[in-house]
Design brief:
Layout lengths: L2 H4 L16 H5 L8 E4 L6 H9 L4 E6 L2 H12 L1 H15 L5 H25 L10 H15 L29 H10 L3 E5 L12 E4 L22 H13 L3 E7 L2 H8 L4 E8 L7 E10 L2 H4 L2
Helix pairs in contact: 4-5, 4-7, 5-7, 6-7
C-alpha cells in the first residue's frame, strides 16, 4: 500500500477537474525539495496542500480569477474557526431536514441568498460586512457549503455571474464538509500568499516549481468546461499560457484535457495520458470519459 497516499493532505473543497486522485503522479514529476511553489489555477488545491505538507517552510503563491474561491481560501487560512462556524450554522439546519425535497429546497434558498448577496456586493463594490452576511468569513462558509452540497462540486456561473448549479439529488444525514480538513489547510497555508489574478500576472522565475491546471481545451463540438467565471477561458488564453510556459525559467508540470492533436499543437508533446470521467453539465447525462494529459519540462524526472 502506498503510505504517501495514506497521509495525503485532504482538500476541503471539491472542484471540477480536481487532482486529488493524481497527486502522487504529479508530485513524482516535481523536484523532491520545493522551496517556492506557484499555482495560478487554484481550485480544490489537492496538489498545493500536499506540496506544502511535504515541504515544511515552502513558500507558495496561489491564485485564481474567481474572487469567491480566493476569498474562501484566504478565510480558511486566516479565520478557519469563523468559516467553520458559518458552515456549521448551515449544516445544522440542513441535516435536521428529514426528506430529500426539504434538503433540496433549503439548498435552493441558500443558493438564492448567495446570488442576492453577490449582486449587492458587485453593485456596492466593497466588502460585505452587513448584518446577516457574516462578513468575508461568512461568505467563505456559504461558498464552501454550496460547493460541497451542489451537483458534483461544480462551480458554474451564467453570463450574469449567477451561480446556477442544482443540488445533489440524494439525501444525507452526515455533513459533506470535512471540518478537520479546513483546520489542517489553515496550518499548511501559513507560508502561502493567496491572490486573485490570472496566470499572466505570475513571474515564473528559475528555481520556482509551478503546477499549471487550466480549464480544458474545448473540442470541435464545443464540449469542455470553462464557466468557472462569467468570462470563461478561451483558445487565445491557452496560446498565451503555452507561450508563457515556454519562455519561463521555472520548472512546471501542466495537466490539460482536450483533443490530443490540439493539445500537442498548443502545448507540445504530452508525457503521459489518462482517461478520466468528466462532467460538463449539471446532470448525469453530461458525464463522459475524456483524455487528460501531463506535460512537464523537468527533464530529470520525465525520462526516469
Amino acid at each position: 500500500m502506498n503510505r504517501r497516499k495514506e497521509t495525503q493532505a485532504e482538500p476541503f473543497l471539491k472542484w471540477v477537474g480536481g487532482k486529488a486522485r493524481r497527486v502522487n503522479e504529479i508530485l513524482d514529476l516535481m523536484p523532491e525539495q520545493i522551496d517556492y511553489y506557484m499555482e495560478p489555477f487554484l481550485g480544490g488545491g489537492a496538489v498545493a496542500l500536499e506540496v506544502l505538507r511535504r515541504n515544511p517552510g515552502c513558500k507558495a503563491l496561489l491564485s485564481n480569477l474567481n474572487p469567491h474561491l480566493i476569498n474562501c481560501w484566504r478565510q480558511v487560512k486566516e479565520n478557519p474557526q469563523d468559516v467553520i462556524r458559518s458552515v456549521h450554522a448551515l449544516d445544522d439546519r440542513y441535516l435536521r431536514l428529514k426528506f430529500a425535497d426539504e434538503q433540496k429546497s433549503f439548498y435552493m434558498a441558500v443558493r438564492e441568498r448567495w446570488n442576492i448577496y453577490m449582486a449587492v456586493l458587485e453593485r456596492c463594490n466593497e466588502s460585505m460586512d452587513d448584518e446577516g452576511s457574516g462578513g468575508e468569513a461568512g461568505r467563505a462558509g456559504m461558498f464552501l457549503w454550496l460547493n460541497r452540497n451542489c451537483f458534483q462540486g461544480m462551480w458554474r456561473v451564467n453570463s450574469r455571474g449567477k451561480f446556477n448549479v442544482p443540488p445533489r439529488q440524494s439525501i444525507t444525514r452526515k455533513s459533506r464538509v470535512n471540518y478537520e480538513a479546513i483546520e489542517q489547510a489553515s496550518v499548511l497555508l501559513r507560508n502561502a500568499d493567496i491572490q486573485q489574478g490570472g496566470f499572466d500576472e505570475f513571474v515564473m522565475a528559475p528555481g520556482t516549481v509551478v503546477f499549471v491546471d487550466p480549464p480544458y481545451i474545448r473540442e470541435n463540438n464545443g464540449r469542455g468546461f470553462t464557466a468557472y467565471t462569467k468570462d470563461g477561458f478561451t483558445d487565445a488564453d491557452h496560446l498565451a499560457l503555452a507561450e508563457k510556459l515556454r519562455l519561463s525559467g521555472a520548472t512546471y508540470v501542466l495537466t490539460i484535457g482536450g483533443d490530443e492533436d490540439i493539445v500537442r499543437e498548443i502545448y507540445g508533446q504530452p508525457d503521459s495520458m489518462s482517461e478520466i470521467p468528466c462532467t460538463f453539465a449539471a446532470t448525469n447525462a453530461g458525464r463522459r470519459t475524456r483524455s487528460e494529459f501531463i506535460i512537464t519540462n523537468n527533464l530529470h524526472k520525465k525520462f526516469k
